[in-house]
């Protein structure tokens, strides 16, 4: 027995030694002294029916309430009382400890507490506590509470006296000095419990009359102390929403604090921009391209250390396939279009990472949303995102709490309830009672909170297991603070039906700097100050606000991680009134106090415009061309399309059409809208001109254009490719069109010189393929209309005296069905003086055809065998000065819900699976090594009704692998296309092959639709201008819109450095489809065309 006992001890010690140590240690209640548990129990008053925020949980506030330099804690409870804890940690202690001082503090428990924040409201140097109330109660039980700190952990509830006993359904508050009068004002974040269907599409309410309009209170301090006056409407806080997230930051860098509000349900998020006169302007639509759909918490901070304020907003997209399929209903394209028409901004269900790109010439800040590229878009039912340097390396990491008490989005639950409700014999009360009884039977969505390390390249690494572990929870509000003052940030998390987390940070061997601000008389803690630390090659900025995440506020002590840096060059504080203070070579690994009284008055310098490579000259050009598109919903015909094919234009073509020696432009049109000629004038301006008789209705979609000499008379004729999928394959409206030029810019229809082409196309490219002195054509086939993903027919058209003959069968038989072509280029890749053809497209590899003296044969290239992608464009240039042509190819990019590789590609299986004579397309993706169908059960069921018989409920379908839908034998009988490369690349021509090399990361933020290759900066090396995005994507995945126009500066060695618009002057956001360059005197002009957008013109500044 003695040996057995000894062996057990040894095994136990061995197990302890083998247990990996995480960055954070979860302290038990007995270790920390924090015994708070937010217990939520459904009852007749608090349930999903009577209070739909019953499962949102509580918050936590952190701050030094007794000025002993240790942060104390306040937790809010829903059906349990709030609790306050005094920090009793001793110097050198193994972990932080706390003492419950709730009774001593005199808290008034009762009601349903939500958000909490600490601020020195009465400017006496002690932090006070403001608690928000909500719940299914009458107004008098929803009064917010203000605990004025009397010292020694004694508080006096004074909300009525201060004018802050608001009775709205309030979720959070933030204190800030919006009018720069020196004292702290307050913004209240509200929702309502009086609207029973908050997702119903109704007109936007923007006049302050909404039931969930937030509130703004101005601090009118007098001799008897602060008194808050509501100024909501006069200040311009007018938009109705269901606010869950709230934070303050200076988003446009003008020195005035702005307000970001994250809204649940249908309402868009709001960005209230401070107009510096006591009012705000809501600019969310102009600053951001889209928002989260069900926005929860949010945080604003500088993610990439470029000095600009970025933003993270949490949503509820599940990370795993099963949970996604259980909650993913049909893509409601009509509703999406309806919300846009009603004035809402696009919204998509996933976490958002909005990266601040800087200020546009019109004064707006331009943000790029890259949450999917960053790797943090799907973290389940998420609540509190916090940006904080958790490992002290100088870069802000991201932690997100998640969990939900009842899985009420489970579609079997929803469907069953809907069926019950549709029974005509049920009264509304019977239906509600059924829901009250059903919801508590649903399981919880319990997941581990997610931890992400900043990779310093705008991506994050999932460190959940290494930093935290695998423990699941129902976590809501969270905050960060250095609880034990050991130089790293600990975390505090409020959980439902589980003890609150006190997470001790175990970071070691990294330096830090912490700052305590001693502010002016009415803002003693320096809220609103801007702090910048310079050192170790990094510039870190911090805007001093504590209300962050969800229903919570973090500590007032400002924390900077320094990594292995042993010194800091300097730190600068800009106080809210503009005074500044700079410390040179401050001491590190300690807390420094910065006193406002030592700050110097400075004049804010207006930034001088810096010279840029390009300048927007659209207005000066005289052009006012706006592309138009008639509404057409492709998904009504083909529900499983990944994107529309009906809005691919406009494309641009360049050539001198009137023989005056100036290059002109043709811009393509669309269904019912004719394209236009843009005739360049000697002054550099343009005159818009029609190219044909516009009296007849136009039925074609222009998708590709070319100005070239078709008939050998020395002038540029016009070829227009017809495309889209609005007609069946074989329609006359897919016939391409040819117009002959009289040499003066007047065009005559000559389509009879073309063969009959009745298939949807994409592009046309000219070259003398057979060296007979005239220009022949490659015409790319886009798809077999209404039979996605079957390819359209591509053509090799041989010029025979100005008439074009289809010579594909005899000269290029492999070209006919090469794929869903999007673009092509003629180039002599092997320097044999015969132009070869490179073709790219959707779900196809980069394909090379060698020109064998007028005939084209496929060329096998090892480097391209796994190059199948969503290619959009290809252009050429000698990027490495080795004398041959390299290529740059635009692809989908990495900012996508789906990640692809040769081993785990995205596939599309096509066949007539239900025997109705029409092609069905089933797309698949890999997750954790398993291939799953992409479409939800409802989406797939619209195309294949038999699916709902095979999988009789959502739970069954959620577990279905691709092989459960398509067994191996059906897969073999299918047409199978794949994508295994999604990065945009440049192809290095090695002389005997190619190497694929990815373009820099910003070029992967969105699909690139077109390139312009030119030496923009005149340094002798070719540069690349890239434009793109895609607004035609199905509404579940959501539009791609992060690209704002990009200059890739080449060094002549095949390396490219991204230059963004503040330095390049090239801002091309929107749904950009085409870019061209042309000469204008000594200048070089750049034109960019966008779908349903303004045609923009830029002029170079170097020539």
Give a description of the structure.
With 1103 residues, the chain is mainly β. It has 4 domains: 37-407 and 443-511, YVTN repeat-like/Quinoprotein amine dehydrogenase (Methylamine Dehydrogenase, Chain H, 7 Propeller), CATH 2.130.10.10; 531-598, no CATH class; 614-900 and 980-1100, 7 Propeller (Methylamine Dehydrogenase, Chain H), CATH 2.130.10.10; 906-977, no CATH class. 11% of the residues lie in helices and 34% in strands. The protein is built from 19 helices and 72 strands. The strands form 19 sheets. Strands 53, 54, 55, 56 and 57 form a 5-stranded antiparallel β-sheet that branches. A 4-stranded antiparallel β-sheet has the order 1-30-29-28, with no helix packed on it. Helix 9 runs antiparallel to helix 10 (428-438).
Name given to the CATH homologous superfamily of the largest domain: YVTN repeat-like/Quinoprotein amine dehydrogenase
Mean pLDDT: 94
CATH class of the largest domain: Mainly Beta
Q: Can you tell me the CATH architecture of the largest domain?
A: 7 Propeller
Q: What does the overall shape look like?
A: globular
Uncertain stretches? 1-18
What is the straight-line distance between the termini? 92 Å
Give me the oligomer status.
single chain
The largest sheet is: 5 strands, antiparallel
Number of domains: 4
Global Rg: 32 Å
Number of helices: 19
Do you know the CATH topology of the largest domain? Answer: Methylamine Dehydrogenase, Chain H
Give the percentage of residues in beta strands.
Answer: 25-35%
Helix proportion of residues, in percent?
A: 10-25%
User: Could you give the count of β-strands?
Assistant: 72
Which structural category fits the helices and strands? mainly beta
């Amino acid at each position: 027995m003695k040996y057995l006992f000894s062996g057990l001890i040894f095994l136990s010690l061995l197990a302890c030694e083998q247990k990996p140590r995480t960055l954070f240690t979860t302290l038990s209640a007995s270790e920390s002294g924090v015994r708070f548990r937010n217990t939520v129990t459904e009852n007749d008053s608090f349930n999903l029916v009577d209070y739909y925020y019953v499962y949102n949980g509580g918050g936590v506030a952190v701050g030094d309430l007794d000025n002993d330099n240790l942060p104390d804690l306040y937790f809010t409870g829903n059906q349990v009382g709030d609790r306050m804890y005094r920090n009793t940690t001793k110097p050198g202690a193994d972990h932080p400890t706390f003492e419950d001082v709730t009774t001593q503090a005199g808290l008034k428990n009762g009601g349903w507490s939500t958000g909490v924040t600490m601020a020195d409201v009465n400017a006496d140097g002690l932090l006070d506590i403001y608690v928000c109330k909500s719940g299914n109660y009458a107004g008098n039980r929803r009064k917010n509470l203000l605990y004025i700190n009397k010292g020694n952990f004694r508080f006096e509830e004074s909300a009525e006296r201060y004018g802050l006993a608001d009775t709205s359904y309030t979720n959070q508050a933030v204190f800030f000095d919006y009018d720069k009068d020196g004292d702290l004002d307050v913004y209240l974040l509200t929702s309502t419990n009086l609207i029973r269907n908050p997702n119903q599409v109704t007109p936007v309410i923007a006049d302050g009359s909404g039931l969930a309009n937030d509130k703004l209170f101005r601090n009118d301090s007098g001799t008897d102390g602060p008194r808050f006056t509501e100024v909501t409407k006069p200040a311009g806080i007018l938009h109705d929403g269901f606010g869950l997230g709230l934070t303050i930051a200076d988003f446009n860098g003008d020195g005035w604090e702005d307000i970001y509000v994250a809204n649940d349900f249908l309402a868009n998020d709001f960005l209230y921009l401070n107009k510096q006169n006591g009012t705000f302007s809501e600019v969310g639509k102009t600053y951001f391209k889209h928002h989260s759909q069900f926005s929860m918490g949010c945080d604003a901070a500088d993610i990439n250390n470029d000095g600009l304020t970025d933003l993270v907003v949490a949503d509820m997209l599940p990370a795993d396939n099963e949970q996604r399929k259980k909650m993913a209903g049909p893509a409601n394209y009509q509703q999406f279009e309806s919300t846009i028409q009603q004035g809402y901004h696009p919204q998509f269900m996933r976490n958002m990472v909005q990266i601040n790109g800087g200020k546009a010439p019109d004064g707006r800040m331009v943000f790029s949303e890259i949450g999917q590229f960053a790797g943090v878009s799907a973290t389940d039912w998420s609540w509190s995102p916090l940006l904080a340097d958790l490992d002290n390396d100088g870069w802000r990491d991201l932690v997100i709490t998640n969990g939900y008490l009842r899985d009420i989005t489970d579609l079997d639950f929803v469907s069953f309830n809907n069926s019950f409700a549709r029974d005509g014999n049920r009264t509304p009360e019977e239906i509600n009672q059924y829901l009250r009884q059903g919801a508590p039977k649903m399981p919880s969505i319990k997941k581990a909170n997610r931890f992400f390390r900043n990779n310093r390249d705008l991506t994050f690494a999932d460190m959940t297991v290494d930093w935290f572990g695998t423990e699941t929870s129902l976590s809501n509000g969270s905050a960060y603070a250095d609880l034990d003052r050991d130089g790293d940030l600990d975390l505090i998390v409020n959980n439902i039906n589980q003890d609150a987390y006190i997470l001790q940070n175990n970071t070691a061997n990294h330096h830090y700097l912490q700052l305590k601000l001693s502010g002016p008389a009415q803002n003693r803690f320096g809220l609103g100050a801007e702090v910048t630390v310079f050192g170790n090659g990094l510039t870190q900025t911090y805007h001093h606000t504590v209300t962050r995440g969800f229903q919570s506020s973090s500590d007032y002590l400002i924390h900077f991680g320094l990594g292995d840096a042993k010194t800091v060059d300097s730190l600068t504080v800009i106080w809210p009134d503009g005074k500044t203070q700079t410390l040179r070579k401050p001491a590190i690994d300690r807390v420094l106090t910065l006193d406002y009284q030592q700050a110097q008055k400075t004049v804010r310098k207006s930034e001088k415009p810096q010279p840029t490579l390009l300048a927007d000259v659209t207005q000066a050009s005289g052009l006012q061309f706006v592309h138009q598109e008639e509404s057409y919903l492709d998904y009504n015909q083909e529900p499983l399309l990944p994107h529309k094919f009906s809005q691919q234009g406009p494309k641009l073509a360049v050539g001198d059409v009137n023989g005056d020696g100036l290059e002109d432009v043709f811009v393509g049109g669309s269904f019912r809208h004719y394209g236009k000629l843009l005739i360049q004038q000697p002054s550099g301006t343009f005159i818009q001109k029609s190219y044909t008789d516009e009296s007849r209705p136009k039925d074609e979609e222009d998708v590709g254009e070319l100005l070239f000499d078709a008939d050998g008379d020395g002038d540029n004729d016009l070829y227009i490719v017809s495309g889209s999928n609005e007609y069946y394959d074989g329609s006359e409206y897919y016939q391409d069109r040819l117009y002959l030029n009289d040499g003066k810019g007047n065009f005559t229809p000559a389509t009879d010189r073309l063969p009959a082409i009745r298939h949807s196309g994409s592009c046309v490219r000219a070259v003398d393929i057979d060296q007979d002195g005239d220009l022949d054509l490659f015409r790319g086939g886009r798809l077999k209309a209404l039979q996605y993903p079957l390819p359209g027919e591509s053509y090799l058209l041989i010029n025979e005296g100005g008439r074009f003959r289809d010579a594909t069968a005899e000269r290029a038989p492999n070209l006919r069905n090469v794929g869903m072509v999007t673009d092509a280029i003629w180039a002599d890749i092997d320097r044999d003086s015969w132009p070869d053809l490179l073709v790219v497209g959707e779900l196809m590899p980069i394909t090379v055809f060698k020109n064998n003296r007028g005939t084209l044969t496929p060329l096998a290239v090892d480097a391209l065998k796994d190059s199948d992608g969503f290619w959009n464009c290809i252009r050429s240039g000698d990027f490495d000065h080795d004398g041959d042509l390299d290529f740059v190819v635009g692809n989908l990019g990495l900012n996508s819900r789906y990640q692809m590789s040769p081993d785990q590609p995205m596939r599309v299986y096509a066949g007539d699976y239900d025997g109705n004579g029409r092609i069905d397309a089933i797309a698949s993706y890999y997750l954790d090594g398993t291939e799953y169908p992409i479409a939800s059960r409802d989406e797939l069921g619209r195309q294949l009704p038999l699916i709902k018989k095979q999988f009789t409920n959502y739970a069954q379908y959620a577990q279905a692998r691709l092989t459960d839908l398509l067994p191996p034998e059906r897969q073999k009988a299918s047409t199978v296309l794949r994508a295994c490369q999604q990065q945009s690349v440049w192809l290095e021509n090695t002389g005997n092959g190619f190497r694929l090399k990815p373009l820099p990361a910003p070029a992967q933020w969105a699909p690139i639709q077109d390139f312009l290759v030119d030496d923009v900066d005149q340094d002798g090396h070719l540069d690349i201008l890239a434009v793109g995005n895609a607004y035609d994507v199905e509404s579940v995945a959501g539009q791609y819109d992060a690209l704002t126009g990009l200059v890739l500066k080449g060094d002549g060695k095949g390396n490219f450095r991204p230059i963004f618009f503040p330095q390049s002057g090239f801002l091309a956001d929107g749904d950009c489809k085409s870019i061209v360059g042309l000469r204008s005197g000594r200048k070089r002009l750049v034109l960019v065309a966008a779908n349903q957008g303004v045609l923009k013109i830029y002029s170079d500044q170097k020539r």
